[in-house]
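Entry type: protein chain
Record version: 2
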Amino acid sequence: MNDASPSFRLLPGASDSPVILHVPHSSRAIPAHVRDGIVLDDPALESELDHIVDAHTAEIAHAAANTSARTPWRFVNQLSRLVVDPERFPDEREEMLSVGMGAVYTRTTHQESLRPDDFDGEPLIRDYFHPYAEAMTAAVEDRIEAVGRAVIIDVHSYPTEPLPYELHGDQPRPPICLGTDDFHTPGRLLAHAEKAFAGFGGTGINSPFAGAYVPLRYYAEDRRVSALMVEIRRDVYMQEPGGPAGPGLDALGSALAELVDAVTPARI
């Protein structure tokens, strides 16, 4: 929880790869001045991080990058989503505002207070959300300039049992949930993902989580940007909540590499 920690890291891939593996929720790091605004004591905060962090997803992306025929780029959040959640809308468009979990969270996964009711999140939006969004936009722009397109694959995980904050917790919870966007997820991209992750006991579409991340500059505007969210149910690869990874991690890395290789050579 070092104030000097960078907010994000772009790990270069092959110059001719269009793929960006986006890992937004894998970190537990919270700068000290941000920690000061959180009302939970240290044990409660560690418990919340166990539940909210997509543990080991950066390692899954790393494993995929190491085994792909053409190394994808990786954009990895270095800070906890309790600082800001870079995948939320930063305004009233965000449906998770209804449970206190917009771009700046004020409630926990169990709907307890995380920050004071009168907390002003704008400084966090200014200092962390906007620079992250600008850097991710630049990474996508770079891939478009280099190869004419960008394919964003979001790497997430979710708990086996629904948490109280979930708006759609009553929906099916398959081992692999694939989140799609009507504009940015071509059918071939989805088909490649279903094939790559077929060995984990089943895939579902937009259940219990839906959508795919695209920087706002390109969102619903530019079909050169394709996107897919891969949500992995945590019992597939780790002890819950917040425990160590198991052998499923390597298998998931291989499956993600298969997806990367499938979408890299040709337009999808």
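Comment: Residues 122-147 form the longest helix (26 residues).
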